[in-house]
């Protein structure tokens, strides 16, 4: 009996010692595949678990007439290690979040204002396209190309949730036209014509 009680107390103590409730990211540490190192628990406050950065509209005065405001581990260290994060999308009339992928996460999008037309393309190249109204949600499976377009005449807002604290974001046109990969190689590897490639490199800041 006594030994049972001793064993149970040992179990409770050892659990207390090993269970980690959270790992608020220490943004000064390097970010590896498992995220940032943990900030010392003694230094953690309630402020680490809240973030006000999504309360304001992003600036949509840009080429895409859209803005993505992330609340990933880098901006919101409280989600570090928890396998979740979020972001805010703002789309002015005519705006688009261009074709992109999140290599590290599934995504759920919730429309909170306006109307958004969105689609993803499966690895079998099938298109799954929906027009979403306020309150509608849509899921985008990990790694698949997708986009969001403002489908109403008014500003649209959506919040997105990711299944990673660091989902990543790669925009297709930036990958193709915003770097120094030579036009001839972009043409060879995409079948696009060089005039179009040079035009988009000019617009997106690419060279060569
Ligand atoms: C939005 O971005 C544009 C272009 O960079 C800039 O001119 C403008 O001042 C910004 N607006 C706000 C409210 O920051």
TrEMBL record:
One GO cellular component term: apoplast
Per UniProt, which keywords does this protein have? Apoplast, Disulfide bond, Manganese, Metal-binding, Secreted, Signal
Entry-linked SUPFAM superfamilies: RmlC-like cupins
Q: Which GO terms describe its molecular function?
A: manganese ion binding
Cysteine pairings via disulfide bonds: 23-38
Instruction: Report the main location listed first in the record.
Output: secreted
InterPro entries in alphabetical order: Cupin_1, Germin, Germin_Mn-BS, RmlC-like_jellyroll, RmlC_Cupin_sf
> Signal among the record's keywords?
yes
Q: What residue stretches are annotated with the Cupin type-1 domain?
A: 52-198
Pfam families, per the entry: Cupin_1
> Which residues of the sequence carry a binding annotation for Mn(2+)?
100, 102, 107, 146
> Any idea where this protein resides?
Secreted, Extracellular space, Apoplast
- Domain of life assignment: Eukaryota
Which residues does the record give as oxalate binding sites? 102, 107
UniProt signal peptide: 1-17
Indicate the family of this protein: Belongs to the germin family.
Protein's recorded name: Germin-like protein
């Amino acid at each position: 009996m006594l030994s049972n009680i001793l064993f149970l107390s040992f179990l409770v103590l050892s659990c207390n010692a090993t269970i980690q409730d959270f790992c608020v990211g220490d943004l000064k540490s390097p970010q590896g595949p498992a995220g940032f190192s943990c900030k010392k628990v003694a230094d953690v406050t309630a402020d680490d678990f809240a973030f006000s950065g999504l309360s304001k509209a992003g600036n949509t005065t840009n080429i895409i007439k859209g803005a993505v405001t992330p609340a990933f581990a880098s901006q919101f260290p409280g989600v570090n290690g928890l396998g979740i994060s979020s972001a805010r999308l703002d789309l002015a009339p005519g705006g688009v979040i261009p074709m992109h992928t999140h290599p590290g996460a599934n995504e759920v999008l919730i429309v909170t204002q306006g109307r958004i037309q969105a689609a993803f393309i499966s690895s079998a190249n099938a298109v799954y396209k929906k027009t979403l109204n306020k309150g509608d949600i849509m899921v985008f499976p990990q790694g698949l190309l997708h986009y969001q377009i403002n489908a109403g005449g008014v500003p649209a807002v959506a919040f997105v949730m990711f299944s990673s604290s660091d989902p990543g974001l790669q925009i297709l046109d930036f990958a193709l036209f915003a770097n120094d990969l030579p036009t001839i190689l972009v043409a060879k590897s995409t079948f696009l014509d060089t005039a179009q490639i040079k035009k988009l490199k000019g617009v997106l800041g690419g060279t060569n």
